[in-house]
Amino acid sequence: MALIITTDCINCDMCLPECPNTAISEGKKIYEIDPVRCTECVGFYDHPTCIAVCPIHCIEQHPSYYETKEALLVKFQALNIL
Question: Which NCBIfam families match (predicted)?
């Protein structure tokens, strides 16, 4: 699954530098997560770092993007071809 930032976001800038896939960007009103780039940190960390640093817990599973850990790992590998 990809993650999504809810409208509760206060634009605190904590999540932006934590994303190893550069999936998080500034939106018009709140930060946004690009579901094509989001691997929930699979391939980098055991848990999504954006969720860990969010002080108001406004990052959750995106209901429209279900991906298994294996699919997320494939996405990670495609995004990080060396």
Answer: di_4Fe-4S_YfhL
